[in-house]
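A common beginner's mistake is to predict each chain separately and then try to dock the pieces by hand. The better habit, illustrated here, is to supply every component at once so that their relative placement is modeled jointly.
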Amino acid sequence: MTPVTFCGIELAHPIINASGTFDAIAARRAFGDALLTGFPFAAFVSKTVTLEPREGNPPPRLWEVPAGLMNSIGLPNKGLHGYLAHDLPELARLPVPLIVNVMGFSRDEVAALVSAFAARDEVAALELNVSCPNVETGMVMGADPAEVAQLLGVVRPLTDKPLIVKLTPNASDVPLVALAAEAAGADAVSLVNTLRGMALDPRTGEPWLGGITGGVSGPAVRAIALAQVHSVCAAIRIPVVAMGGVTCGRDARELMRAGATLVAVGTESFRDPSAGARIAAEVATATGCVSYPV
Ligand code: RRO
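With all components supplied together, the output reads:
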């Protein structure tokens, strides 16, 4: 394994998880101490935390697409106080640095979340999930460079911890959003979040997902992710965490060749919970993929 320094954090290798795709607390219950000794990721990114508790979207929440998955989970979580009381102590026991992903529906909400985690030594870095509408402006924060700049203007002074802005691919000019994040003080960006999609119930013709639309992930989006990572890496100087349909070492190496410092594994972990460790080993040994072994 090749160690890597990311925003001043020492990591054993460049493979981490994509937020919301690996439940480390449930995995600890299922696999016991074996999870800790063979933890599949070099850092752990927690699922998105919001200020208030949320139930999430009505079911159904998942739909399988060719070579991928569509989700409309809707951020179910215990809220900031529930997270601090119940999840943080458990996640702090993981053998790797913890990155907390936060989302707010206004700049003030994000600021409250960032302030709370800024004070916690257990947290190595924060990832700002900007794929949701600002209820005050109606804009999806991550779709608009000015919104991202204003958000960073509010939260950047609140913490010295690294701030990673998780970009949405559902923007007309993703490199422009990345440039705005960099100029406003982000330490890194991560991309891609899921691509907006929709499915109809074949029996009724009505939307299948309770949330009507959902986010597409998995190998179906890999080529789109590679193109977006390539263009973002060419535009900015801060480190990039790349993700989108990574199933094996070769996929990860392609994203690193495009300029990524770290690669996150998402949908593949649902199929194979130890995919992160396998992919890290494949990156280290330049092993090809079973599906295309070159
Ligand atoms: O919870 C979700 O439905 C969700 C989120 Br917050 C996200 O950032 N990306 C995604 O695919 N689903």
